[in-house]
């Protein structure tokens, strides 16, 4: 099987597409990749179900096709200098990839916290990155992405994500996952027949387990030995980040890469400027949605998740969205409390009180968007 071999880079660079495709699409190779693909899908279904946020989180899993895999391997081999021997999964870590799309940042953080504690998966230190747009550095230190970098809950043995500026304005949290064990504990579900009284979601979960058992049973011991160390790319995005990146990929990146538009074409600059403006507007929309969610008065319990294993106790770690002393949060909370006090109240003072609520929310918005390095009296 391809993933158990060490390839001399200089020899592999001479591989033809036909030879690579024959190896990559062999039954043995695909059986292994199918197991990894189905296993990560199974784990994500189980993990996301524990969050009880139906509709807030969706995910995609994909396996690289042979041509895409070959192009990526050749690109990384040339970048490495073309000498030595390597395993393919050492230089290309996204033969299998998953993308988790969250309705907002609170859902993203809840999902990531659960991912950190999920006992079937571990996050690799290598390739752990938070991509952000250039304009983020002009925001104050309490901006969404600075808060994520400094406050995101992490295992004690995990480094914080590298905060990398993408001048394309692409934004996403990237990491690579490993399974913590080769064989899944099936918890007795996979030996049951599908139950017509069960929900469709339960039946799907059972069917996924049965597929995994079959794939695992068909693999050799050599293949099973590669499961734990095999990397899986994971991307976490908000809905608006995903919408932006999907459209930018389609209308800019793919057109340039395919040669439909050259870099010198005036359209390129126009498109990139348009997508930069779109990204900035999307980020402002997300900021306002955050304000709305804070006003709604949700409690900590509503953002909680189920702990899934004592072997990854990170109780000392805190993922705080706002600092406890954050002025913007305090203003929003005060506005929410004032609003709650008005429910059911009659009289002419209501309009004036509502104006007070608006003023607090607006001042909170100003605090959130205040450029880095500016105090209340201006630049410092």
Please summarize what this structure is:
This protein has helices spanning 9-12, 17-24, 27-51, 66-80, 88-91, 105-117, 144-151, 200-218, 221-224, 239-258, 266-295, 327-342, 349-369, and strands spanning 7-8, 57-63, 85-86, 96-102, 121-123, 129-132, 162-165, 172-179, 232-238, 374-375, 378-379. With 380 residues, the protein is of the alpha+beta class.
Overview of the structural elements:
The protein is an alpha+beta fold. Helices cover 49% and strands 13% of the residues. It contains 13 helices and eleven strands. The strands form three sheets. Strands 2, 4, 5, 6, 7, 8 and 9 form a seven-stranded mixed sheet that branches. Strands 1-3 form a two-stranded antiparallel ribbon. The longest helix is centred in the C-terminal third of the chain and has 30 residues. About 9% of the residues have low confidence.
Keywords:
380 residues, alpha+beta, seven-stranded mixed β-sheet, two-stranded antiparallel sheet
Give the helix/strand layout.
Blueprint: E1 7-8, H1 9-12, H2 17-24, H3 27-51, E2 57-63, H4 66-80, E3 85-86, H5 88-91, E4 96-102, H6 105-117, E5 121-123, E6 129-132, H7 144-151, E7 162-165, E8 172-179, H8 200-218, H9 221-224, E9 232-238, H10 239-258, H11 266-295, H12 327-342, H13 349-369, E10 374-375, E11 378-379
Parallel strand pairs: 4-9, 6-7
Antiparallel strand pairs: 1-3, 2-4, 5-8, 6-8, 8-9, 10-11
């Amino acid at each position: 099987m391809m993933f158990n071999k060490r390839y001399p880079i200089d020899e592999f660079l001479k591989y033809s597409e036909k030879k690579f495709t024959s190896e990559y699409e062999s039954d043995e190779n695909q059986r292994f990749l199918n197991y990894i693909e189905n296993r990560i899908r199974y784990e994500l279904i189980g993990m996301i179900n524990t969050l009880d946020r139906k509709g807030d989180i969706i995910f995609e899993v994909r396996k690289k096709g042979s041509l895409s895999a070959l192009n990526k391997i050749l690109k990384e081999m040339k970048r490495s200098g073309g000498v030595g021997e390597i395993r393919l999964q050492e230089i290309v870590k996204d033969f299998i990839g998953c993308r988790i799309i969250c309705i907002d940042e609170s859902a993203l953080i809840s999902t990531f916290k659960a991912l950190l504690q999920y006992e079937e998966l571990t996050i690799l230190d290598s390739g752990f990155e938070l991509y952000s747009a250039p304009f983020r550095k002009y925001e104050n230190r309490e901006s969404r992405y600075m808060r994520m970098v400094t406050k995101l809950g992490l295992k004690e043995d995990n480094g914080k994500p590298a905060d990398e500026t993408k001048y394309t304005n692409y934004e996403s949290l990237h990491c690579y996952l490993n399974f913590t064990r080769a064989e899944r504990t099936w918890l007795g579900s996979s030996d049951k027949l599908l139950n017509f009284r069960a929900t469709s979601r339960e039946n799907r979960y059972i069917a996924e387990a049965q597929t995994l058992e079959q794939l695992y049973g068909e693999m050799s011991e050599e293949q099973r030995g590669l499961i734990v160390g095999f990397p899986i790319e994971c991307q976490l995005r908000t809905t608006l980040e995903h919408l932006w990146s999907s459209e930018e990929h389609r209308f800019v990146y793919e057109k340039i890469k395919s040669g439909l538009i050259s870099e010198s074409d005036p359209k390129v600059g126009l498109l990139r400027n348009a997508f930069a403006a779109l990204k900035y507007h999307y980020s402002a929309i997300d900021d306002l949605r955050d304000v709305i969610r804070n006003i709604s008065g949700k409690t900590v319990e509503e953002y909680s998740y189920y702990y899934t294993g004592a072997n990854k106790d990170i109780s000392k770690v805190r993922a705080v969205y706002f600092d406890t002393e954050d002025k913007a949060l305090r203003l929003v909370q005060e506005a929410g409390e004032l609003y709650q006090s008005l429910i059911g109240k009659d009289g002419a003072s209501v309009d004036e009180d509502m104006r007070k609520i608006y003023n607090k929310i607006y001042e909170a918005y100003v605090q959130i968007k205040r450029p880095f390095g500016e105090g209340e009296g201006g630049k410092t």
